[in-house]
Specification:
The protein is α/β, with parallel strands linked by helices. The chain folds into two domains: 151 residues, Distorted Sandwich (Spo0b-associated Gtp-binding Protein, Chain: A); 173 residues, Rossmann fold (3-Layer(aba) Sandwich). The chain has six helices and 14 strands. The strands form three sheets. A six-stranded mixed beta sheet has the order 10-11-9-12-13-14, sandwiched between helices. Strands 3-1-8-5-6 form a five-stranded mixed beta sheet. A three-stranded mixed beta sheet has the order 4-2-7, with no helix packed on it. Strand 13, helix 5 and strand 14 form a beta-alpha-beta unit. About 5% of the residues have low confidence.
């Protein structure tokens, strides 16, 4: 499925039905008086978070979303029917922004959570409401309330415990395919992963945690270069990072590549400081180096004060130890506030 993580649409609630102006006239009721019913309220536009959705793709094909109008009031004080509510399903982690005002309206962070995006217009009042001791046969009514029109942007930020960070071809997709049931596209060329993937890692009877395979970042990502901001936003809602550094990449030293992406995290300006997010540095593709060369690389990180773990997702070397380290670290961390992205 194609991944869409930002969509702009227009929503319109239903207008309310007008009130009825009616006088009760029956053979044996000589003083029936007013009996006009109220109009029905217009339908609401409601957003509902659905954990089964992973993309905003379904919203891309439709630019305008309208709820149903309320019907008018009728004789014998019959209230008009309420307009049909329109429920729009979005993935968990969707941020809703008002285009005109430019601010965040709300975020949907739990499965099944619902928020009213546009309220339907109130039903108008029938003439029964205007009867007084001096006005026994009123004809006054009120029209139904107007619909609410809003232009909004939906922005999806993945919610995960662990984010896999690294250059293209660092081995993120291979690792997530080994430790979870996720099956991302894997190939030996840059930018194989063009969409984030989520995988659930089972830790036996102890529980599980969610990993997000974030597409590869490059130097300049904080300014939007390459995939840029489009995927850095997904790092904001991870409790910790696994920074994967490939031992098979010959573009600069592994330590240099690690420092470049750390700088991109520092320069990415949000309400959260990504540079302070807990991190485990993982040297990947250990099967391509002999022991002497591998130890030399590890020594450069050690001298820089950066502890590392070494794995090979292909041979499964060090994978179990890595998962145990992640599991222990997650238990040490305070829960992440999904709204603010901080602890």
């Amino acid at each position: 499925m194609r991944f869409i993580d930002e969509v702009e649409i227009e929503v319109r609630s239903g207008h309310g039905g007008r009130g009825s102006s009616s006088m009760r006239r029956e053979k044996f009721v000589p003083h029936g008086g007013p009996d006009g019913g109220d109009g029905g309220r217009g339908g609401h536009v409601i957003l509902r978070a659905d954990a089964s959705l992973t993309s905003l793709l379904d919203l891309r094909s439709r630019a305008q979303w309208h709820a149903g109008p309320g019907t008018h009031g009728d004789i014998r004080q019959m209230t008009g029917a309420a307009g049909a509510d329109l429920v729009i399903r979005v993935p968990v982690g969707t941020v809703v922004k008002d285009v005109a005002e430019g601010f965040i309206l709300f975020e949907l962070l739990t499965d099944g959570e619902e928020r009213v995006l546009a309220e339907g217009g109130k039903g108008g009042l029938g003439n029964t409401h205007f009867k007084t001791s001096t006005n026994r046969a009123p004809r006054e009514t009120t029209p139904g309330g107007a619909e609410v029109v809003r232009r909004v942007t939906f922005e999806l930020k993945l919610v995960a415990d662990v984010g896999l960070l690294g250059y293209p071809n660092a081995g993120k997709s291979t690792l997530i395919s080994v430790i979870s049931a996720a099956r991302p596209k894997i190939a030996d060329y840059p930018f194989t992963t063009l969409v984030p993937n989520l995988g659930v890692v089972a830790m036996g009877t102890e529980g599980s945690f969610v990993v997000a395979d974030i597409p590869g970042l490059i130097e300049g990502a904080a300014e939007g270069k390459g995939l840029g901001h489009q995927f850095l936003r997904h790092v904001e809602r991870t409790r910790m990072l696994l920074h994967l550094v490939s031992l098979a990449d010959d573009e600069g030293s592994p330590l240099h590549r690690w420092r470049v992406l750390r700088e991109e995290l520092r320069r990415y300006e949000t309400d959260t400081n990504l540079i302070d997010r807990p991190e485990i540095v993982v040297l990947t593709k250990a099967d391509v180096l002999d022991e002497v060369a591998l130890n030399a690389v590890r020594d450069t990180f050690t001298e820089a004060g950066v502890p590392t773990l070494v794995i090979s997702a292909v041979t499964r070397q060090g994978v179990s130890a890595l998962l145990q380290s992640v599991w222990s670290r997650l238990h040490e961390l305070a829960p992440l506030d999904p709204e603010s992205g901080v602890r």
